[in-house]
Amino acid sequence: SKLTNLGHLEMTWRSRVHFHPLLVRILHKSRLRYYGKPEKKMDMPYQAYFEVADGSGMMSMVLWNSLCPKWYHSMKVGTVLLLAKYAIKTSYPFKTQPTPGDSQMKRFATIEISLNVRDPPTEINIIPEEMVKPEWGLPEVKYRFITRSELDDLPHNHSCDVIGLVTFVGRAERARKREHSEDFWLYRWAHAIDGTSDQPFILELFATSQPDVFERIHPMTYLVCTQMRVIQGLAENPSRTVYLTTSNESQIFITGWHKGQPYTKDAKVKNFIQWMKSQSEVDQIKKTVIGGYYPFPRPPDSFLKY
User: Fold this and answer.
1) Which of 2.60.40.730, 3.40.50.11540, 1.10.3720.10, 2.40.50.140 would CATH assign to domain 148-304?
2) Which of 33, 154, 179, 257 minimizes the number of CB atoms within 10 Å of its CB?
3) pLDDT tens figures, 272-286
């Protein structure tokens, strides 16, 4: 069928009602958002954002309501989609923006693709990776992996991806989303090492839309976290250590989930695997810890400094 591309959509969307099919690759995926309210009667008040790209650039795509339980888990980072009968809307201005792995990629920020059950009923097809042709010109998924030795020099809020061997994982804890609110964030702390520094990555991992992975993080697993944000609080408190926290677009993977993921081709991931092959598993197990209370950032060691 006759295809269009994202660049052409941005130029012509106001003058059209029906759009030609689109062929795109998913580069980023947000957590699933529930926006239900007691006074509003909606069957499936869910929403998820994706960043999708073709040869012309990258644009946001929104999956709405009952399409979320049906499609959310099948739409992975790297998945190629053929979309027909979608809607185009002006962009929601307050959504979070993931940092693209390819800084040269053009971003179409004024409009977004809307996938709905009706008005119009979107047709979604997932193209298996082995059927994707190079002449389609779809961009590859690119990452921004860093090593632990590089972390201390990165600025606050810098976006990056990490891989490491888990040496500590804390219990799941809860924090109120807002004061006096009944909604909570669920999170846990973890340490991971990659052999480039004596210090581990300190990771604040909020529960994403991957409960099966979040609950199974344990020592000695290979942990990959994407779209993490650097938290540098060194100015106020010199004893405070730099750490990483998840963002709205973070994805977490552990041993058993890595096969077929696009990051397995990344050079820093391959370097980490080579380093792990040189390590003694018995020695590493002796250094691992699980559970317990983990106060972080640590308070100063005396009341005078406090």
Assistant:
1) 2.40.50.140
2) 179
3) 999 999 999 899 999
